[in-house]
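DM from R.C. (forwarded with permission)

"hey, sorry to bug you on a friday — could you get me a structure for this? deadline for the figure draft is monday and I only need the backbone to look sensible"
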Amino acid sequence: EFIKPNDRLSSFERLEIYNRQYWFRLFSSFEEDFPGVEAIVGRKRFQSLMRAYLEACPSTSFSLRNLGSRLVAWLGENPSYARPHFEAAREMAALEWAHIEAFDGATLPRLMPEMLLGIGESSQIALQPYLGLIRSRYAVDDALIAVRNESGSSNGSSNNASTGHIARKLRKLRSLPREDVFLAVHRHEDSVYYKRLSREDFQILSALRQGKMLGEALDAGFEDSAIPEDQRPAFVQSAFAHWMELGWFCVPSEDEGRS
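My reply, with the result:
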């Protein structure tokens, strides 16, 4: 009644064109957001993963920006789609989602140095909403940078060479001994950066993110730390000065303040 047939297509066939276009748009957006996951699991397996994820977690937002927001949790429940490299794929997905959030996440007013004067062990310090904290057992930051650097060519033969280079690089990554990698994913002047952190940095920032008081966050940061106690005050002073300079500390929103 609403969509008329023509001399070539039935009403249903005309409607199906838009249905297919919608799915192609979803596939294209998902591939753009998670090139690192695709490089790890391989093109064919990634196609199956993508279709299964989008059927289980369809878009519920007006923006395709949020399309992959549930991928990390979904992979945890459906590891078979990323085997035999499930762990590396899930950690890469976490980094790529953190990249998306860092790119356009909210920015709150920065905490200014004079605001720190009244802060003590029982104080809470808020972190910028866009700041992501990632712990990985693989160098996913190096791998993702390699993928993104190699994926810009429009020449077919160059693309094939790039794909081979990426595959070799990722095979090498998967064969390396695992290591603890601590990352901050942050934004500076409208660009996203990955910053390696020490274990102590990561544990302090993670505790602050969880709403722990400053004294509790410092205790968590130096748990099982090899840094001698007499060197810890200087370490904290240097780290906090650097984080202030990067603008990672912020004035909490009213909603966060009430919670």
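R.C.: lifesaver. Residues 10 and 243 are 61 Å apart (CA to CA).
me: no worries. Confidence is low (pLDDT under 50) at residues 153-161.
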